[in-house]
Amino acid sequence: VGEILEALDRKGMTGNTIVVFFSDNGGTNLANNGIYSGYKGQVYEGGIRVPCLIRWPGKIPANLVSGQVSATFDITRSLLSCAGIDTKPLNPDGMDIIRHIAEGAENFDRTLFWRLKRGNRVRKAVRDGDLKYITEWVDGKQDMEKLFDLGNDPAEKADLLLSGSHQADQLRAKLAAWEKEVESPRLKDFHK
């Protein structure tokens, strides 16, 4: 990565090049994901929370840290927008996270969803603001569900499902609505 950045500097391309460095998922079960629970293939923070480094000299100050919740699909919309492409007709998922950071915009709450299937196991999650609901299904039957407040518990150690049943109901409903919205006939058995 350092050699790539140096080559851009040498060729005078630094000012007109955005470099984005990130991973699509957290570390494997052999990795050290710091305080975060879980790993790749799970919907705990250790499986989905990743660093994202962006270099855009003259637009994003060096060493700036943003706490804005985002997802990898935000990078697609961001790069299209930064390249001057009108994203409205394309309607890509996500937000222009690069412009949000470059403009120093206020962080805001957003709702994000995850769903993955591994064999007979389906893992799902929804994050709305700091609240995160996780559920796991095995052979079409719910095997586990949990509720966390990531603002107070980013390591996902304190399950609030019993004390936060009203919030869990709201997040379950959001997850169900999202699954209906993105339902595809080709993937009809994905949620089972």
What does this structure look like?
- It is built from 5 helices and 6 strands.
- It is an alpha+beta fold and 192 residues long.
- It has helices spanning 2-10, 45-48, 73-82, 97-102, 165-181; strands spanning 19-22, 52-55, 111-118, 121-128, 131-138, 141-149.
- The mean pLDDT is 93.
- The N and C termini lie far apart (41 Å).
- Strands 3-4-5-6 form a 4-stranded antiparallel β-sheet, with helices on one face.
Question: Main traits of this protein?
Answer:
globular; 192 residues; 5 helices; 4-stranded antiparallel beta sheet; alpha+beta
Brief account:
This protein is α+β, with helices and mostly antiparallel strands and 192 residues long.
Q: Name the helicity range.
A: 10-25%
Total DSSP E strands: 6
Based on helices, strands and strand pairing, what is the structural class?
alpha+beta
Identify the strand order in the major beta sheet: 3-4-5-6
Task: Explain the layout of strands and helices.
Elements: H1 2-10, E1 19-22, H2 45-48, E2 52-55, H3 73-82, H4 97-102, E3 111-118, E4 121-128, E5 131-138, E6 141-149, H5 165-181
Antiparallel strand pairs: 1-2, 3-4, 4-5, 5-6
